[in-house]
Design a protein that fits this description.
Blueprint (H helix, E strand, L loop, with lengths): L16 H22 L9 E2 L10 E6 L5 E3 L2 E3 L4 H11 L4 E6 L5 H13 L4 E4 L2 E2 L2
Parallel strand pairs: 1-7, 2-5, 5-6
Antiparallel strand pairs: 2-3, 3-4
Length: 135
């Protein structure tokens, strides 16, 4: 009579439950943090105009000028001397070279003109100033 002994080996399998738990927690964290990242842009109080028209948001390079002198280009903080270099980088990636200046109503006109001048000098096809429509 022969006795067959079965050697019990180690059964190795990956437990997916902790991986799924960590992935879901990271997803929830990113979902909660994303609105704060989007709101990190500077706050601009736009001037009102009777002829304000809602423009398209496609292929527009937004330059924001804050009341405290802060400048952002598409949400990225930029110092005034580096503004032209940042616009050159944006123009290289843009299909249409349109620049929209969102300046706080307390910003001196000279600063807005500097931005518009830099944009036109670098070859912007269209430039505009963002306003709030009067109601």
């Amino acid at each position: 009579m022969r006795v067959h002994t079965v050697k019990s080996g180690i059964i190795a399998e990956i437990n997916m439950i902790p991986l799924i738990d960590v992935s879901l927690i990271l997803l929830i964290i990113f979902m909660v943090i994303t609105p704060f990242l989007v709101q990190s842009q500077i706050q601009v109080s736009l001037p009102k105009a009777a002829t304000g028209v809602k423009g398209g948001e496609d292929n527009v390079i937004k330059v924001q000028l804050g009341a405290d002198g802060e400048i952002t280009v598409d949400g990225k903080p930029v110092k005034l001397p580096r503004l032209e270099n940042e616009l050159i980088l944006r123009f290289a990636k843009a299909y249409k070279k349109t620049v929209l200046v969102e300046a706080d109503k307390s910003v001196p006109v000279e600063r807005v003109v500097r931005v518009l001048d830099a944009a036109k000098k670098l070859g912007a096809g269209k430039v505009g100033i963002a306003v709030k429509p009067e109601n």
